[in-house]
Amino acid sequence: MIKIGGSSIPADTLPAHIILENLEIRSARPPYDFNDDSGTTRTYADNAAAIYVEKAEHLTIRNCVLHDAGNGIFIGDFGGQTIDVRIKGNWIFDNGIVGSAFQHNTYTAAIGIVYEDNLFGSLRAGAEGNNLKDRSAGLVVRYNWIENGNRQLDLVDADAEVASEPSYRQTYVYGNVLIESDGEGNSQIVHYGGDSGDTSQYRKGDLFFYNNTVVSTRSGNTTLLRLSTGDEHADVRNNILYVSEAGHRLAILDSAGVLDLRNNWLKEGWSDSHSGLSGTINDDGSNSAGSSPGFADESLQDFHLSPGSETVGASTTPHAATLPLHLVARHYVKHLRSAPRPTTDDLGAFELCASSGCGLLFADGFESADTSAWSASH
């Protein structure tokens, strides 16, 4: 529907310093059609997108509603020319092609890309794509609410020009709410590494996964993380990892790779793997387990922490590689924004004092200046 980069008239150049904001863009998929520059009626291709970026640098997409398309956002790296992308505060949902695993809510490749404050809803019913699929260097996914998809996050291998960047080897995922509903396609929440089959191009670096709240209501198994090969590594700390089923339904690692697990809250009875562990899980003994993490209201998807939750005050020191640029400084606010997080003492995406009831909530109106008529709660 909107295309950036790649032109014959005028002569091609690299588009730069572009902001797309406050737009609703929809229906870039078959069977919808459009009139081309000759006036011929054509049907959108399966891989059409609400926003299709062939190449660009210093691009911001914010405060948009992107839905009912093949891909909500598609961004290509164009031989490493696409640089510095920020996707912020968007509502992205109902994209994908029924019966196909090749179209996604977002499908991106760039050098330097940040996703923050976005609401990712489910894909179209019957679509088999992922929610956020990425092939970038310097990827940061923070303070988002991401529900469902074949996987919530599919972080796989890039083209050679992007894979040669040093930042390709470090990926940061923090402060997010990741939700897996019953009946979704894949039981894995996050995939990190590659999917091309050319393992020399796989990420083979470090996934830093911290201060996220993961909630699964699947009736079967849930697996937090798939690492593609033994050369992929994940540092998983300060998260809440909850399944509504019995704890043995939660596995931490699919099979391969090296995973360091520390200071997380997990459903008691959790498993290393559902498919046979060939990699290594380094559990330093600092993790805790229980029947419930103490959410404010699980039934209403209010995943703030209640006073008395054992996750309060249980956080540990951040990994040195996340300092100082990737400290958890904010928390997601329903929906499409974030707010400063006062501390990082607690596990998961929310601090106790960052809850919706922290501060004054006035039940009465402001019809008069008589404050004696006002009521408040914490």
Can you walk me through this structure?
The chain is mostly beta strands. It has a single domain (2-373), classed as 3 Solenoid (Pectate Lyase C-like), CATH 2.160.20. 1% of the residues lie in helices and 38% in strands. The protein has one helix and 35 strands. The protein has one helix spanning 160-163, and strands spanning 2-4, 16-21, 24-26, 33-35, 41-43, 49-53, 57-62, 65-67, 71-75, 83-88, 91-93, 106-108, 111-116, 119-120, 132-134, 137-142, 145-147, 153-155, 170-174, 177-180, 188-192, 206-210, 213-216, 222-227, 233-237, 240-243, 250-253, 258-262, 265-267, 280-283, 288-290, 295-297, 302-305, 330-333, 337-340. The chain has a ten-stranded parallel sheet with strand order 2-7-10-13-16-19-22-25-28-30, with no helix packed on it. Strands 3-8-11-14-17-20-23-26-29-31 form a ten-stranded parallel sheet, with no helix packed on it. Strands 1-6-9-12-15-18-21-24-27 form a nine-stranded parallel sheet, with no helix packed on it. The longest helix is centred in the middle third of the chain and has 4 residues, at 160-163. The chain is globular and about 65 Å long. The N and C termini lie far apart (46 Å). Residues 354-378 have low confidence and may be disordered.
Q: Briefly, what CATH class?
A: Mainly Beta
Named CATH architecture? 3 Solenoid
Number of helices: 1
Number of strands: 35
Head-to-tail CA distance between termini: 46 Å
Largest sheet: 10 strands, parallel
Helix content: under 10%
- Secondary-structure class: mainly beta
Give the overall form: globular
Radius of gyration: 21 Å
| Overall number of domains | 1
